[in-house]
Amino acid sequence: MTSTIRHTGIVVNDLDNSITFWCEIMGFNIQRKMVESGEKIDSMMGLKNVKVTTAKLSDKNGNLIELLKFESHPDLKEWQGKPYSTGITHLAITVDNFDETIQKLNKFGIKLKNKPIISNDKKVKVVYITCIEGLLLEIVENRS
Asked: 31 or 83: which carries more pLDDT confidence?
């Protein structure tokens, strides 16, 4: 048996702003956007009367991020974990041009959490950012 990752789901409060971030800054493309409701989604979520808008976004390799905006069951405004919290803590995104990406992030009002570093093996340049809604992203550029 083999497994592959299908997508990563990210719950958001502002779907339009999130789509702008992922598509205009990070270079993803919208594959599908839809509203889901009804018995099946209620059963899957363990809730009643769910209404969620989902947007599936793909990178150039076909990897998917699914943004979920729950109209019916809003939660916290931001993710509240830390890089060392138990569970999923961050998403690492490989970019073609580190400096250009950082400039786009700055224009979008997103600040770096640390100074960019070169890994000990000199193979990657990397930095953490807190992007929209508190999500922790690791921006990585391959250097070899």
From this structure: 31
